[in-house]
Amino acid sequence: MTNTVWADLFAALPWQRFAVIDGAQFDDLPGDLAAAGVRARGLYLEGPDRAAVAAGPFLAAAETAHVQSVVSALAAARPAAVLWSWPQGEAALYRHLRGVTMIDIPRDEPLPGAPSESVLFRMADPRALALVLPSLTPPQLARFMGPAGQIGLIDGQGTPRLITRPDNVESSRGRITLGLDQYDRIRQRFDAQFRAQLVTEFAPRLPMERAAAEALVSRAVDRAAAYGMIDIDDRRDFVAFYLTIGLRLDNDPALAAVRDELHDASHPPELRLFYARQEWAQLMKRRA
Q1: DSSP 3-state helix, strand, coil percentages of the chain (rounded to 5)?
Q2: Helices and strands (DSSP H and E) totals, the chain
Q3: d(C-alpha 258, C-alpha 253), whole Å
Q4: Fewest CB atoms within 10 Å of the CB: 60, 119, 198, 239?
């Protein structure tokens, strides 16, 4: 993403401008910011565990052209920054963000009297916010944004977006809690976005017409879900593996042992994929 896009986002924000930067995207974000002369405060943790602090989000005032250029450079090649327009000063924004670092989501297996669980809100990940914020109710969005005028980010499709606080809406109180319908909509958006990313990543590498390549990648994504690949990295790895074999993996009798490894519920998904690859390699060796 070019610095011009970020400059336009900064320029579009009213009031004071701040950046929340994702330390998880860097080896040492505090060191990078200090080297660039940018002061920032960790939002998730403060304490002696420097590595844990460094992996969390950081808040930096971004009123000067220098800080804006540093943030733009850091976020140019990775989803690493969310911009805030805030009227009440850095200390107030810091307190506000510390108050919305957690969000309650539905449990996969609800417990009696405890249908939800608390997780960290990935407030520095623009891709996550672009998926979650449209699913919030107006009072929930008002709770997350507080008195902020707008939030600026670049979503998972590379599109710059400005999110505006709803007018004349009373904020919800306490921790934001997602209902099951909201959570399902977020997951559906994520799945569609992730599928599009994988099609963009893998389809150009395949030796076939573009439409056929996109269909095959989409098929691989569906098969990843059918084999229980839930984690993002496992799903991407499965798609890559599937595309080395093609549709034969679905029903070729010679590949039954490979499918058996993928179906083996006694192993977690990453191990099933590992053993399936080993079985495929052995089969190729025997054929050679």
Answers
A1: 55, 15, 30
A2: 13, 9
A3: 10
A4: 119
